[in-house]
Amino acid sequence: MKRVLITGATSGIGFELTKTLCSKGHMVVATGRNSDKLAELCKLTGCYTIQADLSDSQQPLELFTEAVEKLGGLDVLINNAGMNSRKCGIDEFTVEEFDHQYAVNLRAPALLSREALKVMKLAKSGQIINVLSTVAKRSNETMSVYTAMKQGLAGFSAILMKEAQPHGIKVTSLFPGGTDTNFREVDRPQYMHPKSVAETIALLLELPQDVVMHEMVFRPPVEIE
Ligand SMILES: NC(=O)c1ccc[n+]([C@@H]2O[C@H](COP(=O)([O-])OP(=O)(O)OC[C@H]3O[C@@H](n4cnc5c(N)ncnc54)[C@H](OP(=O)(O)O)[C@@H]3O)[C@@H](O)[C@H]2O)c1
């Protein structure tokens, strides 16, 4: 049994991941803004829930403290929450959109990783999984701000790995391809089902002790890079 904190658990990949990890006997704190979805998840799985808005600079820190209290420690942090305001050209994005994406997609996971590192260093063990995207390996027109934040988090995550691993802490930068979730306004049935992505992420918690997965890139069969 591992004590796990998952952000972005009210929808898509995080929702399915919470169900998957709870069904495997892990103790999970699930977070998001949508209180109805958090209540549904709690009823379905028995997980703990914390409502928090990651676009705020203080709420990630408050939720982290509360999560560690509820769990009695922390073995795994999964920085899964993320969003893209919209697709648009570089001559169109607004300062508000940029700042919001920076706060949710880069600052919040960085702050949560910082706090987790402090707790896990004391325990001399732990695991941090940062959910990036295959966009971080590409240069898609109309996705500039989202890509910049995911590439920023990829750089942060790679350095986190180097600083954490000597302390017995495993860090994985996860690059999923297209997944059929509420992330987009339109359905994409040809993309990966969020349950399949959740089951793939859950494998990382079952790696042998002497294996660290630094990067994990996976896509639906319709995507060939
Ligand atoms: N779908 C894809 O094709 C795809 C591909 C590669 C990577 N990803 C990444 O995978 C992760 C999960 O995405 P998904 O596809 O499952 O999307 P989703 O269904 O839209 O879920 C996004 C989650 O992030 C949370 N979130 C968004 N803004 C937040 C905020 N301000 N404060 C707190 N939580 C917030 C949402 O919760 P609330 O609304 O309740 O706050 C929700 O639980 C994201 O990091 C995304 O970038 C997705």
UniProtKB/TrEMBL annotation:
It comes from the Bacteria. It holds the Pfam family adh_short. InterPro entries: NAD(P)-bd_dom_sf, SDR, SDR_fam. Belongs to the short-chain dehydrogenases/reductases (SDR) family. PANTHER family: 3-OXOACYL-(ACYL-CARRIER-PROTEIN) REDUCTASE, 3-OXOACYL-[ACYL-CARRIER-PROTEIN] REDUCTASE FABG. This is NAD(P)-dependent oxidoreductase. The lineage of its organism: Bacteria, Pseudomonadati, Pseudomonadota, Gammaproteobacteria, Vibrionales.
